[in-house]
Design brief:
Radius of gyration: 23 Å
Strand order of the largest sheet: 1-2-3-4-5
Distance between the termini: 60 Å
Number of domains: 2
Number of helices: 8
Strand content: 25-35%
CATH superfamily of the largest domain: Fervidobacterium nodosum Rt17-B1 like
Helix content: 25-40%
Shape: flat
CATH class of the largest domain: Alpha Beta
Structural class: alpha+beta
Length: 273
């Protein structure tokens, strides 16, 4: 019986080792966390609500690359202090830390409320982390976050990270585009805004619109697909909050004139020919 157990354990470890060494794309595990923390024993006074659903990288052929990618993702999801924690513990630890801050900031104010006040400390933190493009060369990852901490409204943001699977480093605009690309890319983004708008017909109209046109330029917040580079501008970046976020799709055909030769997405561009 003992010998059989050892054989089974050895087989399992061998299979795990073989899998991790031959995993050519990033493997992820999903983690969910939904919990409500109350400010006090009187549950009507307020609560801090978490709704977290994320993917965490867990396997890849190159462990150094994997560790680098995981560290960048965890840092942007939760902060640098959580990188060293296990995948099973880091979300609850993050939530607990924010809850302590929430109580410390708001408990002293409870006694200042009178019985007629309808004010309550209802805060929200919704977080989603997910993989996008995931092939043998590029791993693209997105983070969507909504935070409400009182006031007129919360803030929703979307941020993206594209990793070179050879190095584990982020793919930047300088890796993709020729020198002095910014003016040309800014114009392409503006043209796409005009094309996708039902009200804005020309670049002149765009200048006179609700957009802050001087701010419409490459912001480094993009994700790569097998057909395009998509830029995302969050609220307040290029327009007032009420206008929400703006996403612009730039197909490879539109940007090919400003792409560097042999850049990290050359293999994807060539597939489109």
């Amino acid at each position: 019986m003992k010998k059989q157990y050892i054989l089974l354990l050895t087989s399992a470890l061998t299979a795990t080792f073989f899998f991790s060494c031959t995993q050519k794309t990033i493997k992820t595990v999903e983690k969910d966390f939904i919990k409500k923390y109350y400010l006090s024993s009187d549950t009507t006074l307020g609560s801090l609500n978490f709704d977290i659903e994320i993917e965490i990288p867990t396997a890849f052929a190159n462990n150094i690359v994997l560790d680098s990618i995981r560290a960048t993702i965890i840092s942007n999801l939760f902060g640098n202090k959580y990188i060293s924690h296990t995948n099973d513990s880091l979300i609850e630890l993050f939530a607990s830390d924010l809850y302590r801050e929430y109580k410390a900031d708001n408990e002293p104010l409870i006694d200042k409320l009178d019985s007629t006040s309808s004010y309550s400390f209802n805060y929200e933190h919704t977080l989603s982390g997910f993989s996008l493009l995931n092939d043998k060369k590029i791993f693209a990852y997105g983070i969507e976050r909504y935070v409400y901490m009182g006031g007129a409204h919360g803030l929703e943001t979307r941020n993206y990270y594209n990793f070179n699977l050879t190095t584990g480093k982020l793919i930047t605009e300088k890796d993709l585009y020729i020198d002095n690309y910014k003016d040309a890319l800014s114009q392409l983004i503006k043209k796409r805004i005009v094309e996708e708008s039902s009200e804005i017909k020309t670049l002149t109209d765009l200048e006179e619109s609700i957009y802050w046109t001087d701010s419409i330029k490459p912001n480094g917040n993009f994700y790569i697909t097998d057909e395009s580079i998509n830029y995302v501008f969050n609220p307040y970046e290029i327009a007032p909050y009420a206008f929400g976020e703006t996403e612009i799709t730039l197909t490879f055909n539109r940007i090919k004139s400003i792409l560097k030769p042999n850049n990290p997405i050359t293999y994807l561009v060539n597939k489109q020919k």
